[in-house]
Amino acid sequence: MNHSTKIKSSVIKRIIAAMLAFVLVFGLAACKDDGQKATGSDVGKIVASEKKVAVLVAPEAQYPEDYRAAAELAKEYPDKVVIKEYADSRILKAGNPEIMTISEELASDPEIGAIIYARATQFTSNAISAAKAKNPNIVTVCVEPEESVEKISAAANLVFCADWAKAAKDIVATAKEQGAKYFVVFSINRHINENPLLMNANGAIKTACDEAGITYIYENSVDPIYSSGIKGSRQYIKEAVARLYNNGDIEGADVALFSTDSSVQPALIEVANSKGLIYTCPSFPTAYNGLGEVYEIAMPEKISDVDKYIENVKGSAGADTQGKARIATYKFPLAATLLKSALHCAFDILNGTMTAETMAGATVARAENAADNKNFTVVPYSTDLTNVFAAYCEGFEIIK
């Protein structure tokens, strides 16, 4: 076969694969619309696998939505879902991180067939490698990689992340509604230089600011894993905002503050409260990070009941008569939805009803079913990373 023939053959194969994926997506959607409940990867029926699925979570203080969502899934599938908590990934200790140690232990357990990383924090790719070394057949699913999405894609069977192209527009539009004339992004080298997902998120925010007529400013910050820790990272935020004012980079109070680092959210809110600035969204679209670390806010019985939580936010934040910040919050349980999608997909992979060939359509269908919201969208992250899917549901609410 000559070179030209090989190219034509490759193109034909790609076209056929695309057509099959198209048919699968719409076939599954048709089943959903018609209310049919079939077997296998059909979205109308969830079949737990014979093997158990382990969900690794960071502490509730680090990611409360993920933590609570995992607990609810374990309650729903008491004999099939195991929850394991590892230490705060932002605080490094000597020796292997717990996420690696626990992954090895789980992979060595013959009852465990899959591991889900409810938030793919740093060292997740190392943890997957450690697990695969113990059990090459272990299935791994990751949510919102905080290290290189490319490395995670290569290591894991399936990856879910926020659709930052859509999230950025939504976040910036909300900030503009709150009166923003400046949008300051704080990030760290580990996020921007080592993870294309967050690098692209930053680029999307800048584009959204340009389109909205908002001045975009980037400020490189201190990584909490350094010796100064979380306390040092938060202090740097306060000093950086003061410096931006002193240098004339920003002026007035119409300034929105954002950071890709979850650990500094309380500092952003504290600065916003003292200067009357704008706080729209934490490092990942969720109602449960940031504000819950500053105010005592009662959690709803179900983590998906964001409306109830927002009522509680309004009560707590509204009672703060000294705080001058303009605050908004996200209204959709995106982290919980992606974790639920990850579990259902893990069941399908273990049951053999989801394969590499059917993954595109089946994953989209599972995620849409988990979201149960007409405004929710999930699409392939890129043509290169075929096992990574980006999801989002538009919607913020201004608190005060």
Description:
46% of the residues lie in helices and 16% in strands. It is an alpha/beta fold. The chain folds into two domains: 52-162 and 334-398, Rossmann fold (3-Layer(aba) Sandwich); 164-330, Rossmann fold, CATH 3.40.50.11390. The strands form two sheets. It has a seven-stranded mixed sheet, with helices on both faces. A six-stranded mixed sheet has the order 7-6-8-9-10-13, with helices on both faces. Helix 5 (149-155) links the parallel strand 4 (139-143) and strand 5 (158-162). Helix 2 (64-76) packs across helix 13 (334-351) and helix 13 crosses helix 14. The longest helix is centred in the first third of the chain and has 32 residues, at 3-34. It is globular, with a radius of gyration of 22 Å. The chain starts with a helix and ends with a strand. The model is unreliable at 1-41 (pLDDT under 50).
